[in-house]
Structure formats: structure tokens, C-alpha cells
Please model this.
Amino acid sequence: MRVFRAAVVSTVVALVGGVVAGAGAAGAEDTKIVSYLGYEVSVPASWPVVDLAKDPTACVRFDRAAVYLGRSTAQSDCPAHLVGRGEGLVLAPLTAPARSSEGELQVAVEGAGVLATAYYVPGADQTARKVLASGRVTATAKRNAVQAPRAVQVTPSIIATKNIYQPAFDICDAPAQSTMDAWKAPNSPYRAIGIYISGTSRGCLAQPNLTPQWVAAQDSAGWQFLLIDVGKQAPCTGFSNKISTTPATAVAEGRTAAANAVAAAQALGFAPRSAIYSDIEHYTTTAACKASVLSYLSGWTQELNSRGYVGGAYVGASSGGADLASAYTSTAYTRPDNLWFAHWKNTPVLTSRFIPAGYWAAHQRVHQNEGDVSRTYNGVTLSVDENMLDLTMPPAAVTGVTGTGRNGSAVLRWTLPSTTISQVVVRRNAGKVAPALPTSGTAVYAGPSISAVNAGGLVSGTGYTFRIWVKDKYGKFSPGADKYLAGTSSSAAASAASIMYTGSVTLKSQVKRLDTGAVLSGVPVTLYAKAINASKWTAVATVTSSTTGAVAAVHKPSVTTRYMWTYNGRTDVLGSASPIVTVAVHPAMSSYLSPAAIKLGASSVFYGYLNPAHAGTKTYLQRKSGTKWVAVTNAKLSANGKYTYAIKPTARGTYTYRVVWLADADHQGTQTVAKVLTVS
Model:
């Protein structure tokens, strides 16, 4: 990219209203009065004046001292790229609300219908403030009076760059709609445009075309975007707006720049997952300068990532590119997610001898291979920088994260994004600070795409913050989604361990918050039941806890059943599940022996019914021999659950019999009471 530093504007044209020389409020130097739409202001006499109504293609350059009047109505004749900040003034129609930032002061002059913008080198705003303080509305301004527009809130919904392997151009001043239409594919080879959205060293600041409506129109037309922030520069350059030589301060400066860039991006409609590139111009590196740049870009990337945006850096391949590559594996710095490097006329495209091929290799590169070249497509000529893009957007974050607690664990649930996901990563920290990265904290889960996970191994009485990421097939992580949960506990008890079919059991629980020891009263606690052979839990009852945190419910299981009380928690409390209590259910089994006394050679019948019937299953007739039961024979149950055995002993004596039914998948085994047969 070509670098332009502060200089004098060469084009001076007549202005609306006139220029009067003299001494004024701008300072001790000679001043002149500039009038626009009846608004007069005193400026340094050395500032040339450019009337955009008479020279609509003049470039509004904030790297030079000048006064600009009006608003450009044609494509500005600007170099492809401008970096640096001078001081000057723009007086334009009041069509947008005043918005000041570092390096720029704006005042809405409603009485004249004028938006006054004084630009300056960050940290040196004295002249800008004096110029604005000198302004006054004259009598002729009344016909131009308007009310300052309100700021329009835009819902960020556009992702700047999606999946793209195509050429792009970047340009200092966002082109007019007619130009974008003329250059739209297939008229030109470009599929994306680099736009300068923010930064305290941005040279093209006015940009009347760069509005949310313009962005939305280009997005609808299929254009993608490279978002550029031109902020502080390396301390070993001639720029006045420099990164601190103290690494910790440089990190903070990078964070501040990133926060401002996100605000600018969102104001234009760009959503998280968009990449924003910090423009670091070429510098002659030293150890200290390298440390400053890498620290600044670390803070930049960290802050962007924390807000869900992708951290990018634009660098010269031989300076910033080489320095970043040398620290690629270093844990002392956070490297940018995407690298945009300038290495003009280098082939093959997307490569540079200063940046190893294995670095930023997962569709993370932009190569600027031509700078400030004139290109004409469909009859429209622009001065642009040319680039090749190899980028993919990161996946969206999971949404709707909820937590359902269990004793010593938590079930986390979420909704996956609609894009293809190769991995889900869940990690946790004790306390309220989430793990910063997918390698931080304690691992909970890392594996194939799922939408729920049981996080085990939680220590009682401790709150946890979980963070969930998804990773796509290119290895790019989504923004993290967090959930903090505090611990609770639930007990469980049953009135009986085993009951007969058609009987009932009472289940009880008490729920407590573990961090304070307080019982949880007035909360819904759900009793879940699961048949012994079933795979799913079913809600049996939901009971509101008493003032002592106690709940109870009566249930009449038809088969052997497992029970669990679950408190589902709330946003600030980890839910809990009780230990599982099993209540065995055995069938009712009647028994009859008739007659109970017979003569030798006669027979007796042992019969009865099993409820529920279990037709076709076997029962077993047993006879007691000493202290043991000995199998005699077996028989299948009839359709109504009846069993029948004919008993004909071969010797006189007293015999004790019983019938046994063995357990199946649903019920506990059972047996009849013993019956005594006397043979005489």
C-alpha cells in the first residue's frame, strides 16, 4: 500500500460564501473566515479550501490540512490507500447525527443545517477545538436550518467475508453505487471489496457512500468485505500516532482500537464472525518495535475474539509479516486469526518467502499482490489495490445454553449452528470466570458434534462456569458460549424397597443449595421414573418443595422401577439429581392345595394364579427336603396366569411344597407360601 503523510492540498477552489483573511480564534497565526450555508468559522489561513460542489471528484483526505465544503456527489479521485492524520475541517449538510471519536470532533449546527467535522492527530486536538469554538450562525443561515437527525440503530446481520477464494480490491473511499454495479461480477474479476471503517490514522474519513444502506446493498448484490481499521502504527516509523513502547500499554491500546472497530462495524451492520484487520504499515523492525507491534496485535485479537469477531492483521510481508511469523508458536503473544500481507508482484499468489506456507494455512490468508493500480471495468476507472482471498468464516456459536444439574455433575444443553460442525469442545472453570480459550480450564468434552453433554466430576459446593465452542472442518472455532451454575443437592428415599403388584410406594426428597446450605423452598422438583427394562426417564410428578425443602409423592408402579428426583435449577443455581432408588415390584401369586390330606395312592392339586398373568412363562414346583428346596417339575402359565400341579406322593408322610416364578425383565421373582400335604 502507498503511504501518504500530512502535506498541503494542491487543489484550491472557490467556496460558497467567501474567504476573509485576518486574525481569529484558531490561534496566534493568521486566520481566515470560511462561510458555508450561513455558518462561519475561523481557520488557519494556510488551510486551502476545497468546494466539493465545484470539484465533486476531489479526494477528502484527512492526512492533509484543508477545509472541505459540501459533500462529494461523484466517485472521489483518491489513491487506493491513505494512512495518517493531519488537521482540518469538513463542513457538510446536516444529514447525519454528530458522532465524535478520537481524532475527530463533530458538531451538529442545526441553525445552519451544517455538520462540522474537525479532524486532528490523536492527542493534539487544540486547534480542532479552537476552530469549532469560533463557529457562528449568521442571519443568512435561517433558510438552511434543520433538526439534527437521530442515530439509526442497525441490527448487525452481515458477515463480512464468508467462504471465498476470489480476487478482491481495496480502496480508500467507498465507491458510489453506480461504480459498484459497473464492477459487479462478471464485469470485473473481483468478488470482495476492502473498506476502511475505523481507526485514528484513517486517511479517508468522510466517505459519504459508506453507510449501512450501502453495505446492505452490496451484500445483497453478492459482494463480500474486508474491514480495515487504520489505528496506531509501529513506534519505529515516522507516523505521529504510534503504538506505545511499553508492551502492556500496547496490549491495552490494541484492545481499545478493537472495541472501537467493533462499534464501527456494528454501526454499518456487520455481525460477529466478521474479520476486522488492523492496518500496520511497513516498518524497519527492531526488537522493541517488534514487541510493541505484536503486543498491540495481541490485544487487538483478544478483544475482537472476546466480542465474537475474527482478529485480522494487514502487514507488510517483510516487516509485520516476518515478525508475526517468527512468533507464530509463541505463547507470549496472541497471533491474529487471519493474515493479510502485502507482497506485490510475488508469485505464486497467497505466498511470501517471509511467511512459511504452513502458517495461517487453514483458509486464513489475504495476499495484496498489486498496489495503487488503475483498473477500468465496464467503462469505470478506479485506483485500487488488488488482493487474492483464501478465507472461510468461522462457525456460529451455539445458542440456548441451559444447565440441568445432577449430584456431582451437570447436563448442559445447547442448540448447534446450522453449519457443518466437526467438533464440539466444552471446558469449565471453578468460579465465575470462563476458560478463555479452547485449551484453557478443565476439559469436559471434546469430540463429535453433540447438543448435550453430562459434565461429571464437579465438586460439591462449588459453582462452575462452562464455555462451549464448536469447530468446523477447517479447524476454526466459533465464539464461546458461557454458562455459570451454582451447586445444589437432592436426596432420595423410598418407603419400601419391594412392593407387590398393585401396591404403592412413597418417594421423598429434600433439596438444598450447597453454597449457602439453605433449603430451596417453593421450587418445583420433579420425580422421574424409569421401568427396569426401559431406556428413558418419564416424569411422574412435579411437587413444590415445602419450607424445609422437602417433597414427597406416591406412585403405583406396575413393574420394577427406578426413581430419581431432579431439581432443574435456574439461571444462577446448578440443578441436582438424587441418587437412584430402585423399588422392586413382584407379581401377586395365590396358592391353593386341595385336598391338604390324602390317602396313599390318591392325588392332590396345587394351583393358583400369577398377577399380572405372564402367560406362557414357567412356574416351578418345589418340595422341601431338609433345609433345601428340591425341584419337582415345572409348568407354563395359562392365558389368565393359572398354574396347576397334580401331586401324588409314593409314600406316607408329610410333604411341604411351594411354587416359584423367576424374575423377568419387568418384575422381581416371587413364590407362593409353603403348603403342607399329609399322606396317610
About this structure: Residues 1-27 have pLDDT under 50 and may be disordered. Residues 39 and 208 are 21 Å apart (CA to CA).
